[in-house]
Amino acid sequence: MDLTATDKKSSILWPERKDVFGIPVTPTNYKEATECITAAAVKKVSACVDCMAVHSLISAIKNPAYGKMIREKFDMVCPDGQPVRWTLNKFHNSGLKDRVYGPNLTLHVLDRAHAQNIPVFFYGSKPEVLEKLRKNLLERYPNLSIAGMESPPFRELSPREYSQAAERINQSGARILFIGLGCPKQELWAGRQKNAIHMPMLCVGAAFDFHAGVLPQAPALMQNLGLEWAYRLYKEPRRLWRRYLYCNICFVKKFLQSSLKGYRI
């Protein structure tokens, strides 16, 4: 598997990725990730950045099209989930002290965008959520340049609609695109738009809902212990129980098998 990190056309030096059960994940931190994203924004480089938790990791392993998109189109895959960070530390001696959590990475990037007057665009979620998100972000960042917000149809887009969305986002003047469509829809959408949208695209999952104030985040202790999934399951049991039961069992199985085999890349 090719895990090289340099985008020769753009001169952006993306951090080296490491193999985690067949999926390339980047052992990075908030500072490094933010700097790479900002550099890509300034140079108008089309790039795909993901925040990968256990659910998205297992989905990429089990879904060939999704896994291929992550391997071939994504420049940086951040360890969003604590178990993903633990896996990088155990099998690659990465020494990561913290994960790179999508909602927090969103704020780190917005801090930089606000300071450097870099326009941003938000794609995903529902219109009412986007309005609350706009209000909350402008209270936090009064001079933030929001070039646009768009809630797409809740269905697969036609090729023409993909092209039109890319054109609207490019023409908005934005330099960073945040995508909140959920896994794996957001990654498949971003990968398909690679090189069509001329800016870094960040797949940040539920960050829109969290920062809009419509979905509560897990307490910090649960997040640090890798139990955010349990909190979300408690909040939305009917929707999430199958996802977490299946994905958590698969992850534990992969981790134990690799540990017993002395897994190393």
Radius of gyration: 18 Å
Poorly predicted runs of 5 or more residues: 1-6
Strand order of the largest sheet: 6-5-10-9-7-8
Strand percentage: 5-15%
Query: Counting H and I runs of at least 4 residues, what is the number of helices?
Result: 12
Number of strands: 10
Shape: globular
Distance separating the two termini: 10 Å
- The portion of residues assigned to helices is 40-55%
Q: What is the string of helix and strand elements?
A: EEEEHEHHEHHEHEHEHEHHHH
Largest sheet: 6 strands, parallel
Class from helix and strand fractions:
alpha/beta
Question: What are its keywords?
Answer:
265 residues; 12 helices; single chain; alpha/beta; six-stranded parallel sheet; 10 strands
Care to describe what's here?
This protein is an alpha/beta fold and 265 residues long. The protein contains 12 helices and 10 strands. It has helices spanning 30-42, 54-62, 64-73, 82-92, 102-116, 127-140, 159-171, 185-192, 207-212, 220-224, 228-235, 237-260; strands spanning 6-7, 12-13, 18-20, 23-25, 47-52, 76-79, 120-124, 146-150, 176-180, 200-203. Strands 6-5-10-9-7-8 form a 6-stranded parallel beta sheet, sandwiched between helices. A two-stranded antiparallel sheet has the order 1-2. Helix 8 links the parallel strand 9 (176-180) and strand 10 (200-203). Helix 1 (30-42) packs across helix 5 and helix 2 (54-62) crosses helix 12. The longest helix is centred in the last third of the chain and has 24 residues, at 237-260. The chain starts with 5 loop residues before the first strand and ends in a 5-residue tail after the last helix. Mean pLDDT is 91; it is low at 1-6.
